[in-house]
What does this fold into?
Amino acid sequence: MSSTPRSARRRSAFAATAVAAALAVTATACGPEDDNADAKPTDSQSAESKPERDLKDELGLPDDLPDKLPSSLDDLKKWRDGDWKNWDKDRWLREAKDFFNPIIEDLWDSDRMKDADKNDRQKDRREVDESEIDDDPSGGEGGSGEDEGVTDPEPRPVRAKPTPTPYDGDDRPVGKVFMDTPKGSMVCSGTVIADPKNPGKSNLVATAGHCVHGGQGKGWFRNVIFAPDYNPQGKDGSELDQSDQKAVAPHGVWWAKHARTTSHWINNGAERGGKGAQQDFAVMDMQPENKGTSKSLEETVGGSIPVAFNTPRVKSLSQLTSHGYPAAPPFEGSKQYSCTSKPGRLTIDTTQPSMYRIGCTMTAGASGGGILSADGKRLLSVNSIGPATATWLAGPRLGKDAKQVFESLSK
It folds into this structure.
């Protein structure tokens, strides 16, 4: 940024123009090509001449860009290509107050996706310590009813089962979420969810809040994408190394145009442990990297799962099934797994609704994967936390806070 004093409003306007111009030059075409090369304006001129609102919509920019973005064209090009990882590393995440995720074509190729799996094998981010669990059977302040403020006995481990292949041949629209963080590229899981405002044409994906935002004192992650039905043939890592992009991401790469998570996660979430976990839920509005794609995400994958925000009581649920792509040992992130178990209750913060907990041996990488009803027709939660022993998983019960997150993007 220039050292000349300017108002925050002018800095935002300048940053928006510079970002749009830089991305028009290096990432996204901003209009039809002109056969008359001599009369054709430069890409940056085309970008600057286009209405700012249109540019923002086209590039997936937020309404209010962060004031702290670099503003020179060269710096923006470097930042767009990943140099943000080296740009004041201790500060960028805290200052990422707005979700900013422009499409960078071919960034997430099959090799980069596999590298992200390797990172998660070494960095299990969501282990909860047993000392954090509130096991007072008297209940707490999270709300009325028998489920609040209660922790049931730890469930027996349920061994995760490989999902039958091909993944793109079933009605479970599950996939992998990839993101860049200050600690490198990481992975989560996600589910295509139904959008009542766009019936049959949803572009929404449910995942965990910690898959898109760093939590308390931090900000939004970068280059967040979704690969539905990742590795549909369930190939091993060695086989996958020899596979092309189509075999790895059969429905293409979808970029998060917008993302929302709960204020509780933003204000309380922690990189490790259970803080914020009871509202660890996020929704992403996706757009295809391939701009020639006219179908919605739901049409592309062949279905979606409705979300239930009525927090069913544990005793009314015979079983729940968790889906995801676990990447930490003994898994490698290439295959989809599931666990089916009768749920119990888990409380960490007695001021928040208790969580659903099931026996499951899935590890990091399964975070954000959908926890579905017994008939598989409703999404009731997403994977949030588990112990270092990888014997169970827990996810938030989706109530009014989660519903507000969902509705903010459904609109």
